[in-house]
Each structure stands twice: as structure tokens, then as C-alpha cells.
Amino acid sequence: MILNLDQNFKPYPERKSIRFKSFTFSGGEPHIKILDKPESHEEVTITQRIGSFNDFGFLLIAIDALKRIGIEKINVFIPYFPAARQDRLMVEGEALSVKVYTNILNNLRLNSITILDPHSDVTPALLNNCNTINNHKFIRKVIQKLPNNIKLISPDGGSLKKIYKLAEQLQNYEVIECSKVRDVKTGKLSHFNVHSTDLKRQDCLIIDDICDGGGTFLGLAKELKNKNAGNLYLAVSHGIFSKGTDELKKSFTQIFTTDSIKNTGNTDNIYKLKISDIL
Length: 279
What we know:
Elements: E1 2-4, E2 20-24, E3 30-34, E4 43-47, H1 53-68, E5 73-77, H2 97-107, E6 112-116, H3 122-126, E7 130-133, H4 136-143, E8 151-154, H5 160-170, E9 175-182, E10 189-194, E11 204-211, H6 215-226, E12 232-239, H7 246-251, E13 254-258, E14 270-273
Parallel strand pairs: 1-4, 4-5, 5-6, 6-7, 8-9, 8-11, 11-12, 12-13, 13-14
Antiparallel strand pairs: 2-3, 9-10
């Protein structure tokens, strides 16, 4: 059975849904009441898109509610894992935020936790009973909508391992490596570099896990054009788009993402694939 805490996100439509009521107390605390009681031997999967600590808290109380009605095997599907980018200490005084989230979930002794296209190997290593879904099916569907002979662009060193595994699965796609420099104190990006002399007007697809403000992709788009690239496309598993998409639309012919993040809708050149279609 499935408990979809976000009623606009149903990645397993074939499974029977558990009905519930929820509300928020005047002090700001989320609350839930399970209306359908599964058999104690049944496995229940909770799905939740987490865009705030309140969403995470709602997930935690839902887990507790299921345990209190006797459900022993609880699975959780969190497509975008919170704080996945805060997976190392860059400057003194920071929190290792991802470990805060993983510690809480590990203490609940869940049957499994599934995440989509994690930012790095750190989150799966910290989570007990973690399953990961890679971006291969997502990118296959993206490529079906694009011209033939497109080049795959790795935006930085952190993406190289994943993109070469992807290219191996897809076959017959060349990978172009790129790099950048980030000031860890300010977050400012500079020194974008495309490791190719001439792209000969060939179309390019930048592939990454997350687009937040978009600075990485805007900087790369400029350098790719300087290297004689053709049309530019962007595919990110998790489209946060915290600064909007107006500037990105000026550089990219089309942008692809999934519905892992709330409030990311389809627009004239942003196409959102449902996770239910790529599981």
C-alpha cells in the first residue's frame, strides 16, 4: 500500500492509496490521522517531496502514526533528499546538514529509503537500507525528444563519474568535460572551461542532478557558445530554479526536469517528466 503525503505527487499510481487527514496546529505543528488501517504484515511505502523542514516533520509523524497502528515494514520514497549538497564541511562553523537528516531517519529503523539521482555518494553511504534510482531512464526519455548525435556535457568534476556511466548505457554519445571554480566562502563561480577546441555547431545537452540558481549552467552556456556549440539543452533531475527560469530560457532551447520538486511546472521551454513514468 502507498501513503502519498503530497496529493499532487503519486509516483506509484498502481498501488492502493491509504486515506488520511492532516492539518496544522495553530503553533505550526503538522498532524496526521490515518483513516485506512493496513494489515500489520503489509508493507507500506510513504512518498513525500521535501521542500522545507515542515515537510520533513510531516514525514516523521506519518512514520510514527503507521508504527502506532502496528505497521512494521515501512518504506520511504524521497526523490530529492534534503541537504544533499551540504555533504562536506567547507568552512569552519558549518553544520554537516545531510547527516542531521540521515541520523533522524536511521533512528526510525525503516525497511528502506529510496532516493532519486543523489547529489553524491555521501547520502546513500549515510542512509541505512538506502536504494538509489539513477537518471538513466530520465535521460533516455529526454534524448528521445532531441536531435540525433547530440553531445553530452558534464558540467564539473563532480558529475564525471555519473555521466560516463550514463554514456556507457546509452552508447554512441560523446562526453565533453567541463570545469569551474567555486569560492567556498562566498559561493561565487568563475573560470568556466569547456575541454574542447571546436564543437562544430553540434547540439549539446548539459546533464546534472540539481539546478538551483542556475549560475553553473549560465556560465557553461556562454563558454559552450564560445566553443562553437549549436543548440543547448539542459536536463536536471531536480529543478529547484530558485532564481526563476527567465535567464536560463535565453541560453537553452529547452530545459528538462522531473516532478521531484514542488511548484516546478511546464512552461514554454521547460518540460517536466513525471517520476511515475521513469521508475
